[in-house]
Design brief:
heterodimer; A: alpha/beta; Rossmann fold; Alpha-Beta Plaits; TIM Barrel; 3 domains; 8-stranded mixed β-barrel; 6-stranded mixed β-sheet; 23 helices; 21 strands; elongated; B: mainly alpha; Four Helix Bundle (Hemerythrin (Met), subunit A)
Amino acid sequence: METELELFKDSKRTMLIVDDEEVNRLLLGNIFSNDYNILEAEDGEMAWSLIQENKGLLSIVLLDLMMPKMNGFDVIKHMQSDPATAQIPFIVLTSEKSMEVESLRLGAADFISKPYDMPEIIFARVDRTVRFFEHKQIISSVERDELTGLYTRRFFLKYCELIDRFHMESEMDGIVADIDQFGLLTEIYGNSVAEGVLKSLSDVLHIYAGQHGGIAGHGEGDVFYLYVIRSEDYEKLTKDINERLRADFPNANIHVRLGIFKRESKSVGLVDVFQYAKIAGDTIKDDYQASLAIYDQQLRETTLFKQRLIHDINQALETEQFVVYYQPKYAIKGERPVLCGAEALVRWIHKDFGFLTPDKYISLFEQNGLIQLVDRFVWKKAAFQVKDWENRFGFTIPVSVNASRIDLFDPQLSETLTELVESAGIEKKNLHVEITESAYSEKQETMINAVKKLRESGFILEMDDFGTGYSALNILGLIPIDVLKLDMSFVGKMHLSPENEKIIEIIMNIASVLQVEVNAEGVETEEQLEKLKTMGCDMVQGFYFSRPVSAEDFEEIIKKEQEAGK
Amino acid sequence: MNEVIEKAHAIGADIETGLKRCAGKEDLYAMLIGTALKDKNFGILKEKVAAKDVDGAFEAAHALKGILSNLCLYPLADELDEVTEVLRGRNLPDQKDMEAIDSQREEYMKIL
């Protein structure tokens, strides 16, 4: 890094000296000739043509104002009309006191008074201007996003800080704009249309910020930021966005969601402002009826609650606040239902909140990967439980455990599970692994390979929630599955129409062709049980037999089974 | 010390400041004195004053004043300063002033 900077310091920059008097050009040239390559022009016309020829090369122009042919003012006008020359700094050479301020007003970086006293000072001033503009140009080239021209996130946040510092009294709101299903939009319409959408949206945000007082920024992908003086309502903004996108892309149905955080107090940090705005926006993800959501007290509480759960998870695992429950599975092919296994289900008895239902934390932990900790906890408990029951009842009950998407990305998954069953002293076939269909929706190949590896190693694989995803049947042909778990929604709706029944029958037939067993979930009535039996269903679980119970209560189920089997 | 510079000093040039502006380079200073004294604007100034072209005369006088003051060639530079200010006030300089410029320039030309 240091050598690179040295390299810049040592390289000779190019300077253009414009003055109709040779004496003046020579005097100035003498000051800079050791450190700069010097070009000279004796009138404005020559100057402008040299500037155009060397616009990529020129570091600075020293410009006299009174010259024949084209004067210095006209040279400035020409320079400012072309973006490529407008960024070249110029310093005005003048003997007129009145022109000093005037030249700065015209955009000069500085002025040098004639006569040229103190060459050292002239050199230092010019050289410093050159360095300053180089830095400024590097900064401005990265402070804005190339595609949209908006501030990049880091610069955006820095400018927000400046706004806060200089406008302490202004009430500002943070807004995050996202485009729903932007990935899909790119896939359907291609990159150039997707980029066009980003540009159109950034235009609207830029204009809005300009009109209402504020700034706009562009984050990753389709995420945009606004920091603006508070409006009573933001309907106008959503209207502007929708109108513009409809006009620019009449065939695409683009939904932009706005999340708004009203910053009542500057004690909320800027990063948090936009995080909260994003959280608000995400609550209306894929909801085409809603265009904006405000971060309110309720959302605040939900967010805090989630943060609290994330914070508490490690301690909860250490202090056994997580408990594994077991729901029995029954084989129904024979004369009477026979206990043939159990599904391990996690329960969190939080030290302050008490019993937490899984919907409070499972999807949250799936989003941030913490589910892996919970899964591993359950695997271990379940494996040792199988062994414990074997020891005490002489009865092997295979237990199925859940493997989340993130687990399947772990290249050591098969090894981890193998080590676990070995340490528990149970056979692999007695720890079933349940995988949900939706786990395959992305990065299919990685998933399929992970599942194949598990099965080759000897684990029994069950596909959970079958029928709720998008590509259920497709997946069956791709991966080796032993048991198909029919989602409880099928069983629940079975009695509503003959068609519903038919669908279950078709699934049963496919399963039988593929030699896969079917386990129906959510069986609550005898009628459902009998129906499934006649359809050829292999196993069932549900409240008809038992809700999920603690390991201790499960022992009663085992005992009952042993009695019935006698 | 360069002969030209020594003689310029005798006429009234502030060679200390002039040399400083040339970063102490005597050859450069002497060369620039020669260039300045032969500047075409001396001729232009005369023409424009004779033609009563105040703007044209001002431009020429202003340019001369600039270079002569830069090189500290007094009292010629002061004379040009006076004429420039007269022209700035949109008046034509007196014959006396123009003659003074001529004679002082001739004095300087002798040293080249």
